[in-house]
Amino acid sequence: MYESYFGLTGAPFLLNPDPSFFFDSRGHSSALSYLKFGLYQAEGFIVVTGDIGAGKTTLVRTLLDGIDNDKVVAAQLVSTQLEAGDLLRSAITAFGIPPKGQSKAELIATLEAYLTLLATQNKRAVLIVDEAQNLSRDAIEELRMLSNFQFGNQALLQSFLIGQPELRDMLLSRSLEQLRQRVIASYHLGPMDRDETRRYIEHRLKKVGWHDHPHFDDDAFDEIYQWTSGIPRRINLLCNRLLLATFLAEGNTITATDVARIAMEIRAEIGEPTTSRTSDPTPSAAAPVQEPLRPVMVPTLTDSVSQQPDAPRFTNELLQPRPSRGPKTHAFLLVVGSRTGCVRAAALQKAFATRSDLPTLKMLLLSAPGQFELSADWQEHLGIREPDYTLRMPPGSNVGQFADALRQLDNLLAEVNPAAVIVQGGDDAALAASLAAHRQGLPIIHLEAGLRSFDRTRTQEINAMMCDHMADLLLTSEWVAHDNLAREGIPADRVQFVGNLVMDSIRAMLPQASPPKYTLRQFGQSPDILKHKHGYALVNLTANGIGSQLLPLTDLVAILKSICRDLPLIWVTSETTRQLITQNNLLAGVDSSNLALLPVVPYYKMIGLVGTAACILTDSSTVQEEATIMGVPCLTLHNYTERRITVEQGTNIAVGCNSSLIHRAIAEILRGGGKKGRLPKFWDGMTANRVAEHMAAWWKLRAPRESLATSA
Known about the structure:
alpha/beta; 7-stranded parallel beta sheet; 6-stranded parallel beta sheet; 22 strands
C-alpha cells in the first residue's frame, strides 16, 4: 500500500522468512558459520534455538539456499505435535515418498530405500524439523534411530532441529544423551544489539530501493530497539506499521514519538505487554490521543533516605580500619541488602547446612535508614539465622551512603578475608560488595545474574551489568539471561543455570502462610472486604519507586480509586508511601469497605495475601516472581521489567501507569480470571540445591589443599 508513495520496489518488512533479506548480524553470522560446518559434516544433528521471531527459519533457509540442490534434497516438518509413529509418516510425506504399508517396519523400510536411492545418485537428504521443542521424547528418539541409516560409510539422513529455548532443556535430559552425542553443530540465536537493530532496518529498506524517504530520526531507531529488544520479527511488525502510519498521515519523517505511539497501539491490539523504556511519548496530531507514560524513578538501596542539611559524618560501628589482611577464613560471605535478599538467603543457608564439601556460609547485612529491617518475626518464619555481620549506613545522600558502604566493606573484607563473596541481583549492596571484593582480589559469585530490562537509564541495570562483569561465577534464574551475558562477551563457562531461589523459600513458607482475614484484623481492618464476588486486588509498591514520588503516586491513586469500585483493594504500603498519602489526603472519598491500607507485613503474612488475591498491581520485581510462582495475574506498573520470564511464561503483564491498559487488564481479570501462566524451567523449589552443587564444583577447583582436607 505504501510502497509507491515512498518509491520502494517492494514491502521491506514482511513477516514471512525470506532469505533474500538475510541480515548478517554478529549472531546470525556466527550461527551461519556453525551450521555450514555442520552441514559440511553430512551427518548427525544440527540444533538451532532462539526466541520466537529471532530469525531461526530465515537462517536455515539462507543456509539451504547456498547449497547445491542437485546434491542435497531437503524436506521440512512444520507440525511437530507428533508421536514417534506420526513423525515417521510425516517424514516420508515431507520427502514426497509414496508410502508402502502402514506398519512401522514397512514405513522404515520405505524411508531407508528412498534414502539409499539418493545415495546411489550422489545425493543426500536433510530433514528440517521446525518447532522441535514440541516433539515428544519418543519422537526425538525415533529421529535418533533414523540417523543410523548408512550406505557404506555415508550417513543417509542429516536432521536440523529448530526450536525455542525449551528445546535446549529437553536435549540436556539424561534420557537423550545418545542424541546429544550426535549433535555436530548447535547455536542459540539471541537478539540483536542497538547498533545492529538500526543496521538491520536500513538493510531491509535498502533492499527495496530506500533513499531516506521516509527519514528515520536517530532517536527513532533507538526507540525501536527499546520496544523490540532487537528481535527481528518484532522489528518487522513495528516498522511495517510505522511506514503505513506515515503514509496515511502523508508524512515523510518517523520520530521516536511516532515509534512509541504505534508500538503502544500494537501492544494494546494484540494484548502483548509493554516493555518500552520510561520515556514520555507525546501523541501526534494525526493519531488518537494516548495517555502519556510518566517517567518512573529507579529503585535503589537508598532512594528513600532524605538528604540531611549537614554532610553525613561517616562512622563505622562495627570495625576500625585495619592496615593488614586477616587470615583466610575459607568461608563464603553472602551479602544481603533487601527483603528479597533475605528470602534467598534463607534457602541458601538450609542448602549449605546439608553439604560437607562447602565452606561455612556467613551472612552480611547492609542496613540503611528507612530500608528493610530484618526483624525477629522475619527470622523465625523464614528460618534465617542472625546475620554474622551488620554494616549500618548513616543518614545522608545515596552517593554518601554508597561511599560509606564501600569503606566499611573494605575494612570488613580485609578482616574476614572470605574465600568468596556472594552478591545478589543489581541493588546498591551488590555493587558495593562486588567493587570492594574485586579491588581486594576476592572471588565473586553473582546470584540472579544476567537479568536485563534494556533500560540503561536505570541504576539497577548498570549495577547488575557491572556485577556480572566482575563475577567469577554467574548463576542465572532464566535462560534468557544466558543470551544477555553472551551478547556482552561474558564466557559461557562462567555461567550456570540454576533457577529461582525465591521459589524455594515460598515452598517452605506456604504451610505457615497466614490467611488474609487474620492479617486484616491484626491491623484494624474489616475482613468483609474478602467477601466480594471477584475477590480482591493486592497493591504493593516499593518504598523507592512510584510510592516515593508524589506526582506518579497521585496519578496511580486516581486509577486505583476507579478500580476499587469494581474490585476491592488491599494495599500494603511502606512508611514513605503512607506519609505521602496521609499528608496529601490522596484517598479522600474512598469507601473503607473498598480499600484496606496495611503497613509492610512479615513474609508469611505477605505470602498469604499474594496467594489468595485475584490480581496484583506492583512495581516490585520480587512480587512479579511471587505472583508467577503462585499463579496470580500480575500487573507491573513499569514499562520495563528485568524479569522478562514472568511476562513470557508467567502471569505478569507490564502495563506501566497507563490508565487504559490497566483498566483493560482489570476488566479481563473480572471477566475471565486474567492471564494464565506456567512455572519457568527450574522454578521448582530445588534451586538452592543446584546452587550449592555448582558452588561445590567451583570451589573444588579453587580451594587450597588444606581446606579440602579439612572439609573431607
